[in-house]
Amino acid sequence: MKTMLLVIAVVLANLFGSARAQDGDAENGERVFRRCQVCHAIGEGAANKVGPQLNGVVGRRWASVEGFSYSNDLVAGGEEGRVWDEATLHAYLENPKKVAPRGKMAFPGLRQAEERADVIAYIRQFEAQQ
Fold it and tell me: How far apart are CA 100 and CA 71, in angstroms?
């Protein structure tokens, strides 16, 4: 049942969100990402904090940053071969607990699809810095 809900969430996010993510506003995404910086770092010299560093997160396998202790939900997803594609990121950024119900992330999510697209556009700039 959980897998079915995840698949539905990813499909819906893909239908309604991925096109926007491709042309999200990275400059606005940097401003929105400030909410994330309490727990996550990105960019040159980024290190794990309360959450893992996010360099190269788009396309990365779940629970794969060395030195970070992930929740069992994310570890299981990584073992299943799941990756952080744009559709999954949209779903997770909208409501982390829908994607990883027992996950550690306390952030309630970004309700606006445009903000999610902008954050994804911003973090894509750091794909090469892993």
Answer: 8
